[in-house]
Amino acid sequence: MIRYALVCAKGHTFESWFPNSSAYDKQVKRALVTCPACGSAKVEKAIMAPQLSSRTRHDTPETLPVPATSPAPAAPPAPAAPPAPNNAPVAMMSPQETEFRRKLKELRDHLVKNADYVGAKFPEEARKMHYGEADRRSIYGEASPQETKELYEEGIEIHPLPPLPDERN
Ligand SMILES: [Zn+2]
């Protein structure tokens, strides 16, 4: 059995168990996997943050979705709680988590190198590509939570850029 963190087209996240990864692919293709919050069958794997409390689990990073396909991820602001003054979030990471984090960084670096930065014009550019008014390419930029929601509702496939702890300054 394998557990995937999933996200629906409206951005709801939930978890589901599958016998194996090909069973996951089949069930999603046949729209058998639905969001418990809204019933949408448009679901995909979400990026899961490494959990320090579950060291005994042997999740491999190969479940990491690769969002380098166009259109590229939006970067909605992470809803992180403000840290207490003078305290920074810290963690001791196992080698697995260090590797996972390295891959996240690789993904970001690759995306940032190969995608066009469009800044606040991201929603506009993503729509142009979605509706065929512009050639498809990888882009990244910023979108507000409201803009992100609207893009999801129009069925435009975007992904949040995974934040890295040392970039949250
Ligand atoms: Zn949903």
Strands, count: 5
Largest sheet: 3 strands, antiparallel
How are the strands of the largest sheet arranged?
2-1-3
Helix content: 25-40%
Oligomer: single chain
Low-confidence stretches: none
Q: What would the average pLDDT be, to the nearest integer?
A: 79
Helix and strand content put the structural class at alpha+beta
Bound molecules: zinc ion
DSSP strand content: 5-15%
What is the molecular shape? globular
End-to-end Cα distance: 38 Å
Explain this structure:
With 169 residues, the chain is of the alpha+beta class. Helices cover 28% and strands 14% of the residues. It is built from 4 helices and 5 strands; from the N terminus they run ββαβαβαβα. The chain has helices spanning 21-29, 95-114, 122-130, 145-153; strands at 2-8, 13-18, 43-45, 116-119, 139-141. A 3-stranded antiparallel β-sheet has the order 2-1-3. Strands 4-5 form a two-stranded parallel ribbon. α3 (122-130) links the parallel β4 (116-119) and β5. The termini are far apart. The model has no long low-confidence stretch (mean pLDDT 79). The structure holds zinc ion (ZN). The site of zinc ion has 7 residues, from loops.
Give the helix/strand layout.
Blueprint: E1 2-8, E2 13-18, H1 21-29, E3 43-45, H2 95-114, E4 116-119, H3 122-130, E5 139-141, H4 145-153
Parallel strand pairs: 4-5
Antiparallel strand pairs: 1-2, 1-3
Zinc ion is lined by residues 8, 10, 12, 35, 37-38, 40.
